[in-house]
Every structure is written in C-alpha cells, then in structure tokens.
Design brief:
5-stranded antiparallel beta sheet, 2 domains, alpha+beta, 472 residues, 6-stranded mixed beta sheet
Length: 472
C-alpha cells in the first residue's frame, strides 16, 4: 500500500496557540461547525446501535451535534439510514453518492437536508482520477466557491486595516499575514473538495458503516492511496502496516476542508475568538446560575471563595444565591431557566465576548460535569453561542497529586480549616468535597484543551473552520 506523493497536511508546520488536544474525556457539543469534527445533522442517525462519534471544530468533531442539532467534531459518515433515497451500507469504507445522471462520488457525507440535498467531502485526488463531465462540473463549482470565500476574507481584512491600521498589534500582524496567504493561495490547495448536490442531482446515497468510516478517516489522515476503493479488511491491514492503531480515536481533519463564504455574523464571531486569544480574555466561572468574572490567569477559585458567605446565606431566610444554586441543581427545575447563567455573564461583558464555564457536581459519585460556552455579541446586538462543550470527569481522570495541590492552595486551606473548626463539615465530607474538586479540575482541563484547539485553528487561518451560529 503506497501513500500519495505529497506531504500530508497534518505533518506540515503549524502555528499553534497551545498544544492541541482535540479529543478528551467528556462529550463535546461545539457550536463551531468543524464539519470534520463530528457533527450530526438533523435527521441523521448511526447505521449501527452505537454512540455517535465526533468527526468541528469547526468542529474541532467527534461529538454529537447537540448544538446545531454543531460545530463540532470528527468525520461524519453518511448516517442517514432510513431516509428516502438511502441504500444499504457501502462495500467500501467511504460513503457513496450515486448521481442522478452518470457517475458517483466517494467520500464522507457531511450534511443531508430535509429537502434531499447532500453535501459530501471528496478528496481532490479521487476527483482527478475519476474525471467525467458531471464530476468535472461539480469540482469546478467547488473551486469557484473557494475563490469567492478567500476574496471575501481579503476584502474584510482590508476594510479592518483601512479603518484601523493596528500597527504593531498582534491582531494587526495576524490580519496582514492572512491577507498575504490568501492572496497567494490556489483554489484547489485543500485536500478535499466540498460538493453540494441538490435533491434532483442525487439518485441514491450508500452510507458506510460507522466503524468503517473511522478507518477511512485514518486512511485519509495517513495519506494512503485508494482509501475510497478498499474494503474494511484491506484498509485495516494497510493502516496496521503503516504503524497506525485503526481502533484509536479518529483524527480531526477539519483543516483539510476548503473554505466557504461567510456572512457578517460568522465573521464577527471569528474576530471575537481572535480577540479572546490575542487580547485580554473575558472569562466567567461559577456553579448553577451563579457566575463571576475572573481575572487573567485566575482559575476562578478566588472569586468563588469570596462568594461563599452569600452562597451559604444570602441574608434572607431561604433566599440568597444558595437558594438559586439549589434550584439550579434540582433535576426537576424548569428547563426555561437553563440559560439564566449566560444572561448574567452577558450583562457583565461590555467587550462583547466571553467564555463562561459552570460546574455541576455529583458529590455522591465523586464526579463533576463542566459546561463551557463561548459567546459573541453580533452587530445587531444579539448574542450568539459560537462554541459549546460539556465534559464529565471523576477523580481518577485528574493528574496525580491534584487533591494535595487543591488542599495546599492558600485560598482553600483556610476555608477548609474554618469549616472543620466550626463543625460544619467533618473529614469525610471534606474528602468528598475535595474529590469533586479534583474531578472538576480534570473536566475543566479537558474543556480548556478543546477550546485552545479551536482558538489555534482560528489563529492559523481566518477562512476556516466554519462557525455555525444557527443554534444556541
């Protein structure tokens, strides 16, 4: 089995904000549609009774598409069994779209709409090898959209630089670098083309089995030839021969997709991510609907500790923030109150952007769930969720010594000693609380890594990944 005669994109040098850890513990539901990062579209479902995996992102994967129903990330196989026009599972590891005229496309179906239209990612090398009149026309349309998308970003960058030269600023350097890159880029330099087909152009969709689709992702990641033609058995053998564990978490391929034109909302959200990374980050942390703004480099613990008197009393019998917290943690609480915590953050973020994280502890199980979002205020004054992530972890997921570090923290130790001295909490209760704190730390680190991956992608290129703001 040979590899394509090129350097796979995943081995090219990259500028990164931080070490990229795209797949961690927990369930990712990013609103960033990193389509190669695992986003399921409405109406799709797995071809087997197994959890949906992330391809995002964006998307970035892969996670279930919970937020645009994002993004967010892993390669989405054509999980469209049961939908009209869908055939039996493919004999190869890729999805196959049979065209209404002549020919077919092999790759990964990323989107199937209720109107019957389909979007499929196809390697350009496969398109060249299977040229035909219809395939050539579709490839030309993809190149036209790529050129339009890049020209649009260049115009947006030039408007920003004309309005405010930003000489010497980090954002100004990024904008100039991206303008130069985009002006020199070719329309077919991405590994994959995105082909959108109207319902009338599609005769049938033959999806790959989910496990086989993961093999295809690995094959594409490693630059293997003939991924689109190999059976699962032969592709697995080729991957093993190449030193790849085909059962490992599938890689993120979002950076191999071509750009698409973005509207003002998406561009504004992208700039908000840039400012969050290069400027002073705006961050909120808390529990339930209670969040506080934390400073740069502060994990939020100091501010939460300052709130403890209110959390534990609030001044009025049965009132205060403690009553709100207990109500938020009540599984029977009305669903309409679910986003109240974001309303609180929006009123305290005049910068028009923020990342907010809250924890939902499960003391009995010694676990914690961390929910984190990034929001941006759009030009029309409304707020949009750009990215969303949920991670659940237990004490065993934390790095060694995490409990000792928490207990030794000068902000925590006096609090614990005081609770013990007043008889409010015994050693068993304190140990249980610390175990939840350790779990929170582990879940927070996993979520932080995924947000850093998104920021890294955005800072590396301003034309991808696509940000889906269609759902909250």
């Amino acid at each position: 089995m040979t590899r394509e005669n090129r350097t796979p994109p995943h081995r090219r040098p990259r500028d990164r904000v931080s070490a990229r850890v795209c797949s961690g513990a927990g369930v990712v539901a990013p609103v960033v549609c990193r389509v190669w990062g695992g986003l399921m579209d409405r109406g799709q479902r797995p071809t087997r009774a197994e959890p949906r995996s992330s391809i995002d992102g964006v998307g970035r994967r892969a996670a279930p598409r919970a937020v645009p129903d994002i993004t967010a990330l892993g390669l989405v196989a054509a999980l469209v069994a049961g939908v009209a026009g869908v055939g039996l599972a493919a004999e190869t590891c890729t999805d196959t779209v049979h065209l209404a005229g002549r020919g077919e496309l092999r790759g990964a179906v990323l989107d199937r709409r209720p109107d019957g239209s389909v979007t499929i990612a196809v390697r350009r090398s496969w398109l060249r090898d299977h040229a035909g009149a219809e395939v050539d026309r579709l490839a030309a349309e993809d190149r036209r959209l790529v050129a339009a998308a890049r020209a649009d970003v260049v115009r947006r960058i030039e408007r920003l630089l004309d309005a405010e030269p930003e000489e010497g600023s980090r954002r100004g350097e990024l904008l100039r670098r991206e303008r130069e890159r985009l002006q020199a880029a070719r329309d077919d330099d991405s590994e994959f083309a995105l082909v959108h087909l109207a319902a009338r152009q599609v005769r049938r969709v033959t999806p790959a089995v989910a496990a086989d689709a993961r093999l295809a992702r690995w094959g594409w990641h490693e630059g293997l030839d003939d991924v689109e033609a190999l059976s699962a058995r032969r592709l697995r053998a080729a991957l093993v021969e190449a030193g790849v564990d085909p059962d490992g978490a599938p890689p993120d391929l979002a950076d191999r997709l071509p750009p698409r034109p973005q509207d003002d909302r998406e561009w504004h959200a992208r700039l908000a991510l840039v400012d969050q990374a290069l400027g002073t980050p705006v961050t909120f942390q808390g529990v339930g609907s209670t969040v506080v703004r934390v400073g740069a480099g502060d994990g939020g613990l100091a501010d939460i500790v300052r709130l403890l008197p209110q959390l534990l009393g609030g001044g009025d019998p049965g009132g205060g923030l403690l009553a709100e917290l207990l109500e938020d943690l009540d599984p029977n609480a009305p669903a309409a109150r679910a986003d109240r915590w974001l309303d609180a953050a929006r009123t305290q973020a005049p910068e028009g952007r923020f990342r907010a994280t809250r924890v939902r502890p499960d003391a009995g199980a010694g676990r914690a769930t961390v929910e984190s979002v990034f929001e941006a205020r759009l030009p029309d004054g409304t707020w949009a969720t750009v990215w969303r992530d949920t991670a659940t972890a237990g004490g065993d997921d934390a790095p060694p010594g995490a409990a000792d570090r928490i207990l030794a923290d000068p902000r925590v130790k006096p609090l614990v000693d005081g609770l013990r001295a007043l008889g409010i909490a015994d050693d068993a209760a304190i140990d249980q609380a610390i175990s939840v704190g350790v779990a929170t730390l582990a879940a927070q680190q996993a979520s932080d890594a995924r947000f850093a991956a998104l920021q890294s992608d955005v800072l590396r290129r301003l034309d991808i990944p696509r940000l889906d703001l269609s759902a909250r």
